[in-house]
Predict the structure.
Amino acid sequence: MDNGTHFRTCHLCEAMCGVAIDVKDGRIASIKGDSDDPFSQGHICPKAIALQDLHEDADRLRKPMRKTAAGWQEMEWDEALDLVANRLHQIRSEHGRNAVGVYLGNPNVHNHGSLVATLPFMRALGTQNRFSATSNDQLPHMLASLEMFGHQLLFPIPDIDRTDLFICVGANPMASNGSLMTVPDVRGRLKALKQRGGKLVVIDPRRTETAKLADEFHFVRPGSDALLLLGMVHTLFEEELVNLGQAEQWTRDVDLVRLAALPYAPEKVADHTGIRAADIRQLARDLADTPRALIYGRMGTSTQAHGGVATWLIYVLNILTGKLDLPGGMMFNQPAIDLIALGAMAGQKGHFGKRLSRVRGLPEFGGEYPASTMADEILTPGDGQIRAFVTVAGNPVLSSPSGGRLDQAFEQLEFMVSVDYYLNETTRHADVILPPTAALERSHYDLIFNMFAVRNVTRYSEPLFEKPAAARHDWEILLGLAHRLEKLRAGGRLPWRKELGWRAFKQLGPDPILDMLLRTGPYGGDGGPARPLLQPAMALISDLLPNGHPLRTLAQLSPLDQRWQSLPKGLSLATLRDHPHGLDLGPLQPAMPQRLYTRDGNISLAPRRYLYDLDRLQARLDAGPDDALVLIGRRHVRSNNSWLHNSQRLVKGKDRCTLIMHPDDAQRLGLKDGVPADVSSEAGTITLAVEVSDDIMPGVVSVPHGWGHHRTGTGQSVASAHPGASINDVLRDSEVDPLSGVSVLNGQRVTVTRTKAVAEHQQRASA
């Protein structure tokens, strides 16, 4: 790589901040914010500096590794890929195609090469036992978008730059940098909100980093958000505040929502939520009476026992108050690569509940089963039992409930392979680890997070460093495995057309596909001279993709097909290469009803599955308030799940993996600040230091997500020196939202006691 300054998008969270990386003598000299990036305008968070740490990490694997009786041994690539493909094929042949399971981790959505190559890889595996981080995160949002708007990726995005009232429920964008809301410099945008006379309201069981900036804050009991939101809906109807505005002409079933909300007067739900009835009513009035306003919720509202209903109700409140598809409200993005429109064109909008998981009967979503049932499918004998497993850029032992049970499950597999460049808590169970190149050695384009951005933007990043000769990109690894699996299934030889397709795919890689998607997108041109040359190759490649997949449909279109035509703005990969700081495509624009993909072209305000699930919520209301101690997670701006803890500069300083609890609870349990305590459930016990704080609601304790690096056999030295404790070792995988299948990560009951050794010491001292 040439010396000088190189511009890139940080891929370590959803914010897509632009960075300026200075390179000297082939090494990174500094990383700063890119002041010319039209989206982030020079802002970066502490994570951006870790781009250097990840690239230079001595613990990062560089060659394939095989587990042997004598320990881990390096392999050559062809030998490793042949071994993995042969073992997966053997197990599939002996036990059926569903004997192989796959888990895709969070980093995949930051990686366009992996996203593109996953399609033929999954097709080659042919298994229905697919899992991902989706069901530990955003599944209720995807279900609500599918049910109400007709497409699983059509998420309403907060127009934070133009709103005058931002009601934030169960979200902490100051720590997450936004979530399903790609928003660099949240602090600056919230400051601008206040400067124009706007108001920030935060509702959360903990006074979070975002809550400390709020004009108004309310504690809410974990898991009761759906009751709070129904109390607000009830108020809108009772006080005649419902006004859908322009959405009224393309929204149906408003009366069904009114009837559903009748039993949930604020006075009836106040004790359950911990929020006064008068405050619930005022929240509804403020949302209705403020012309430019919105209500937004994330992990706290979605990953709980009533996550499906709570997420639906947030959409409902925005619609009933006329805040959908208007500036300052919740709007729909128009990304340069519009996977939503492509999917709709191909008839692929998403699906839910087409089949149920083998052991617990949980519904699939988009072809994936909930991650909470992975261990069940491995540990439970019978037809379809998972006997081999593939993980791609994931660490579910730390990121999915019942991590200890997953440890047990992975250890009993006949074969396991991990595409990952760390020997971590999950990959230590693998028989083979296939490490891809580092992120700075490959190009970057945010296929996913551009769809969630609070402004329409686009940016492409060239590789910062040349790929080492002995290395392979993750897309090359996945395509190499897929090609081998297809040949094994075909008896060793593929038809000539398919073989040409594989060769074309491997030769072209993901970037020409990006170019085609940009050229045919809403800001593209007529395709230019590159299109006719690319078309034959893409037609061959399309044969390797699943039937009906958007990329397959697009690739098979004739160059003269009218669907190739788009706005004459000329956006292409070459254009983005000429604009290394990225391009501003403008603010969010009204897009309804053209953007709706429901069968009748209307918003379905009251899908029946949500109405049926209200019986379960009513039972909670009838049972009375629950005074059990419940657990919630939390995030930190210096972390991203479990995969940034091997950076010394991100984990240094005061211990962040603590048990936060209210002073009243600490006194009742005989605990003090800094004293170790045991947090226990049927899933297990973890021990960590108490942090007494009135920033958390009484009856609630909090443990951060992503820690637990104490397990033996890993190869991350910095993480092991700062192990913390994994919240997922006490979260039960048996608890899911039955409506959506999402894991319950917030609101599970736990017990907290003094650690036994401390208690015995105190008893001896008092004697």
In short: Residues 64-152+335-436+477-487 form a domain with the Rossmann fold fold (CATH 3.40.50.740). Residues 558-568, 761-767 have pLDDT under 50 and may be disordered. DSSP finds 27 helices and 31 strands in the chain.
